[in-house]
What we know:
five-stranded parallel sheet; Rossmann fold; globular; four-stranded antiparallel sheet; alpha/beta; RNA-binding
Amino acid sequence: MHEGKYALSTGYAAGVTPEELSEQVRGALSDLARSQGLTVDIPEVVHLERPRNRDHGDYATNIAMALAKSAGLSPRDLAEALCAVLSQWPGIESASVAGPGFINIRLDTAAQGELARTIVSAGEHYGHGTLLAGQVINVEFISANPTGPLHLGHTRWAAIGDAIARVLAAAGATVAKEFYINDRGVQMDRFGASVMAVAQGKPVPEDGYHGGYITDLAAAISAQHPEFALLDDAEQVSAYREAAYELQLAQQQQVLELFRTHFDVWYSERSLHESGAVPAGLQRLREQGHVFELDGALWLRTTDFGDDKDRVLIKADGEYTYFASDTAYYVDKRNRGFDRAIYLLGADHHGYVNRLRAVAACAGDDMDANVEVLIGQLVKITRAGEEVKLSKRAGNIVTLEDLVDEVGVDAARYSLIRYPADSPLTLDLEVITQHTSDNPVFYVQYAHARVCSVLRNAQDLHIDWRSADFEPAALSTEQESALLGALGQFPRIVAGAAELREPHRIARYLERTATAYHRFYDNCRVLPRGDEPVTEEHLARLWLCAATRQTIANGLQLLGVHAPERM
RNA sequence: GCGCCCGUAGCUCAAUGGAUAGAGCUACCGGUUUCUACCCGGUCGGUUGGGGGUUCGAGUCCCUCCGGGCGCACCA
């Protein structure tokens, strides 16, 4: 770890990050086990938390209660023994037992302050880790039909999916973001027929697409391809369908880039069939022995692995089902080298979870390790309490573009990421366009801009804090300690968000950190006033500001939200 | 009928089995001759839908009931 290196090679005060502290508790446990002959299962990571009540110290752990039974000691006795060892460590001011066996740890000021230097030198890598190192993960999301604009549900996944991918990468995984283009089947034909009908001045078929964007597509295609009108009807449907497909897909791609959600792979369902991946996938399933024939159709026995019913791969009429594409697509992802395929689906597709897991198992994989399905609940938009349902472009849905037009990319992304995906969400447009503290995205961005302003002013005063001495013990106030504590949590938060696939934890963390900074700012003067000399306290606070700026910037980066230097 | 998700303050929502369940908004009270007041402090607000259980400890895990959303194709 960086801090350790500093402590040894430069003679700076030993720094204590939560990760180091966790290691120290582990070390104390094995010391105890050895010296007292205890048989305890020492966990790989000792859970440390920041107590809500600061009277309980800087950090607390419940490890003694968790291990007491296996150690054959009472929780308090085990805790006492651990505290005796921990109190000897450099950087720890005190360790004490509380309540049923909590261990409360207080760091000494200098050890805590070292963190500012650690963060500044880690720079944009601060918070990144190796929890998922070596894993190759495919994250598939949105995967809409190219038959219209992306709607609100897609938009939620665009924001969350992208953030999940960024967070997984920060935790050390190799990640590809993938969009599966549903460009095959009757929806495409209905789409083509709808555009053609409008181009010909006829009414859109009952089962067709009715949004205003169909009119725009028809007009664009008619202008570009006047020769389509000369084709016979069957050829014309196909010509309109293909031209509209191309335009609509391009529109989705452009809007997503604008939304800062970049896909590494756009995978066409058609290409799956054209490449022979479907029969290849089928072959794989046959080899595993879960394919059977019944009533003239070919089935996959997904009920072997927890699905409600078996699924048809090839219909009695000889056509592949959509499900056949799904299975082939899964096999193809694995063949492309992904250890894990993560699917992000809307709540209306939760019935697919068991099916997809069963597909993995039928292909001979581990359905717990190789496939993962996350379900996102629906989003509702209100304006002053009234639900908004109408889109400017698409009729009775709200599109990604509509939302971005209303609130901007930063507020849209942040507001969608801020809540866990599995809870239904209602966003009020009036709230997320306000530039006040009831709108957390601006609250966090403002904290960043505020830090930047202080650092700019320091530069104007020719205070070169970077090359001056840094005295970590000068960060001694309650607010400085609280801010350092918050900054130290960041790597943990990133790792947890990655492990749980919950980027909202990053957003919530940033809000807490912003609050800690604002409190610090209100109580601790950073820069010298007037003719005051520059003290080590000023310099230390500048280091703390720089560390705060870096942490907030790194966090916002994981959410795909800008960190403005001025507001 | 079967299955999945949800139910936490008036509203929108947090809380990885831990200590007194937290934020923001709303209402009210206060703070800046000083680095960005888009900020900070305070007051009011709860039987975590109900009832059982598991254990040192449950908003969190299990069972059950109530309420809401969604899904149960040889459609895509």
